[in-house]
Design goal:
The complex is a heterodimer. By secondary structure, chain A is an alpha+beta fold. Chain A has two domains: 5-44 and 240-371, no CATH class; 57-228, no CATH class. Chain A is built from 13 helices and twelve strands. Chain A has helices spanning 5-13, 15-52, 76-81, 140-145, 172-175, 182-189, 210-221, 230-236, 238-272, 274-282, 287-321, 336-363, 366-371, and strands at residues 57-61, 72-73, 86-99, 103-110, 121-125, 135-139, 153-156, 159-168, 177-181, 194-195, 197-202, 225-228. The longest helix of chain A has 38 residues, at 15-52. The radius of gyration of chain A is 28 Å and the shape is elongated. In chain A, 48% of the residues are buried. By secondary structure, chain B is an alpha/beta fold. Chain B has a single domain, classed as Rossmann fold (3-Layer(aba) Sandwich). Chain B contains seven helices and ten strands. Chain B has helices spanning 45-52, 73-83, 99-107, 114-127, 143-154, 173-190, 201-204; strands at residues 3-14, 19-30, 34-38, 60-65, 68-69, 84-87, 161-165, 193-198, 209-214, 217-223. In chain B, β9 (209-214) and β10 form a beta hairpin. Chain B is globular, with a radius of gyration of 17 Å. The two termini of chain B are 17 Å apart. Classes of the chains: A alpha+beta, B alpha/beta. Chains A and B meet through α1, α10, α11 and α13 of A and α2, α3 and α4 of B.
Chain lengths: 373, 234
């Protein structure tokens, strides 16, 4: 017999109540994991999507609220191109819309002379050519999802586009995107003289400090704008901070609810087991040991809820990412830190909930407790 | 021979002082004594027993154990853990634990590792003729076996004082005699002082000292030589 025997027997003696409490904690953790993972997923997805295009640095509006609201004037391009060690710059106009009024899709407008076209890996068709009427290249995943082939038509931003190519990408965002010539998209969005951002490619080979030096120079060439790598660009978008704040607030409330569930369960257990606690006290168990007994029960429930919750959260996240609404825009991204945060929450919430019932248990006079048979 | 427990003018009230269960009790018990506290139901004898082992808190007066005043739950828990073994009328065994575990639970915190606790519990079970019942739950034991298990648990930490509250109250005559024999043996073999609360004069007659309680007060305190003095510790 060890210190764990009694808490485990206590929990197993009331399996349904224990299960429901563990489930409550698990749902709280799952909510936290899913919300955090999806929020980080959106951010990570955009960063990796832009990164894949071959850009070393991104010039964007400082602290833009969301991805498509960033505005960079077209006129900035010549100054950026003139920065030493810059091989090429390309304005990019981004938009989120629906494809055939069905799936959400990211539309990227690229200038016809952009370096971005060069690294594209086409699996079918070709890149747009002069004279094409509303041409589009679809990412392979969205083409498959929409059952589209080269030569088919797809409606984007209420405009029928002719599919001239299908491209394969490594990032899920690009696999689910539509790449169109810049001019047509600018016309559709009435944003003729602006881009969402500039992607900047530096000359090869890159030395260790080249990116940092180029960044400093680009900042000088584009005063008032944000210059950074793709991860920094994604981090600077304020809507992600808002999403994170919402996710954390909801998580906090849900975790507090889990803590209350633990408190309620253990309070009931303490009330029901008053006699048992009295016997333990009569046997010489110190108040501290009795406190530990109840706390261990809280920790066991929390640990079980935490592990189940992480698994549930990952599954929920994967399911949510596959819905029509989110497919292609959100790639679940669960960092080790998010898991650690969930476990920290759980190991605070559980014992916190157990603290009051445990304290109550230690306040009982053994004689009073033993009278309650 | 030395003073083990001393109650000095102890009183215990309930219900805001409207019920006086024990009043002005002074009692000194030596470490080699066997004491029967007798009295009618509601006389206050069980309350005195609770005060002797710190299960209850006196409203007035002081309780000293081995010459030291003991105050507070933690201090009393430490005394009970190492110095006092308690046997209850209704056994008060933990129903979710096996016979062996019911003894081990008393050893937690007092005896090193799980293996040592297990060995000690099995020793005690064998000593009390319960070796074959080690894995059974209390509900699967007979009344006599439960009481023997409760005594084994009370003696697990080799206490200086064994306290028994109506230890034969739930048992038939034959089993009662057997249980009192075991308690007597504990006194003789382990040198444990014994306090028995009982309303059974036959049980009281087995003790070397008889303290009669009525209306929460000591009415008489007399010594006989019923239970033999303990031999040296084994």
């Amino acid at each position: 017999m060890t210190e764990l025997t009694l808490p485990l027997r206590g929990l197993l003696a009331r399996p349904l109540r224990t299960l429901l409490t563990v489930l409550g904690i698990a749902l709280a953790v799952a909510g936290f994991v899913a919300l955090t993972g999806l929020t980080a997923g959106v951010q990570h997805s955009f960063a990796s999507g832009i990164d894949e295009n071959g850009a070393d640095l991104v010039v964007s509006q400082r602290a833009a609220f969301n991805l498509v609201s960033s505005t960079v004037p077209k006129a900035l391009g010549s100054g950026l191109s003139a920065v030493p060690n810059v091989e090429a710059v390309s304005g990019v106009l981004l938009n989120i819309t629906t494809a055939d009024d069905n799936a959400n899709i990211v539309m990227a407008g690229w200038p016809s002379d952009s370096f971005l076209w060069k690294d594209m890996h086409l699996v079918a068709g070709r890149i747009p050519a002069p004279g094409d009427q509303w041409p589009v290249i679809l990412g392979e995943s969205i083409a498959t999802a929409l059952d589209k082939r080269v030569g088919d038509t797809v409606e984007l931003q209420f405009q029928p586009y002719q599919i001239v190519g299908i491209a394969s990408f490594s990032s899920v965002l690009n696999q689910n995107s539509a790449i169109v010539p810049l001019e047509g998209l600018q016309q559709l969005l009435s944003r003729e003289d602006v881009f969402t951002l500039y992607e900047v490619r530096l000359k090869r080979p890159l030395e260790k400090n080249d990116i940092a030096v180029a960044r400093t120079r680009l900042i000088a060439a584009a005063p008032g704008f944000a210059v950074g790598d793709t991860e920094q660009f994604a981090n600077s978008i304020r809507i992600f901070d808002l999403l994170k704040a919402i996710a954390q607030t909801i998580s906090l409330v849900v975790m507090a609810m889990a803590s209350v569930a633990v408190a309620n369960t253990l309070l009931m257990a303490v009330n029901e087991r008053t006699f048992e606690i009295g016997v333990l006290a009569a046997l010489g168990w110190s108040p501290r040991r009795i406190l530990r007994l109840i706390l261990i029960e809280g920790v066991i429930m929390s640990a079980a809820g935490g592990v189940i919750g992480i698994v549930l959260g990952v599954l929920t996240m994967q399911m949510a990412a596959k819905t029509n609404f989110a497919a292609g825009l959100i790639v679940p991204y669960l960092s080790g830190w998010s898991i650690a945060q969930a476990l920290i929450f759980v190991f605070i919430a559980g014992p916190l909930g157990a603290l009051y019932p445990a304290w109550r248990a230690t306040r009982l006079l053994p004689a009073d407790a033993l009278r309650r048979i | 021979m030395s003073l083990l427990v001393e109650l000095s003018n102890v009183g215990r009230d309930f219900d805001g002082g409207r019920i006086v269960a024990v009043d002005g009790v002074s009692l000194a018990i030596e470490d080699d004594e066997t004491v029967a506290i007798v009295g009618r139901s509601g006389s206050g004898k069980s309350t005195i027993l609770n005060l002797v082992c710190g299960l209850d808190r006196p409203t007035r007066g002081e309780v000293r154990f081995e010459g030291r005043a003991v105050n507070g739950r933690a201090a009393w828990a430490a005394v009970r853990a190492s110095r006092i073994g308690i046997v209850f009328q209704n056994f008060f065994l933990l129903q979710s634990l096996s016979a062996r575990e019911n003894i081990e639970v008393a050893l937690l915190g007092n005896l090193g590792g799980a293996r040592q606790r297990r060995v000690r519990a099995l020793e005690l079970l064998a000593h009390f003729g319960l070796a074959e019942r080690a894995t059974l739950l209390p509900a699967e034991l007979s009344g006599g076996e439960r009481q023997r298990l409760a005594i084994a648990r009370a003696l697990a930490n080799r206490p200086k004082l064994l306290v028994a509250d109506e230890p034969t109250g739930s048992l038939d005559v034959q089993t009662s005699q057997s249980v009192m024999g075991i308690i007597g043996n504990a006194h003789r073999e382990f040198g444990t002082a014994v306090i028995v609360v009982t309303h059974d004069e036959d049980v009281a007659a087995l003790c070397g000292r008889r303290v009669e309680i009525s209306d929460g007060r000591i009415r008489s305190d007399s010594r006989t030589a019923a239970m033999p003095k303990p031999s040296a510790n084994p």
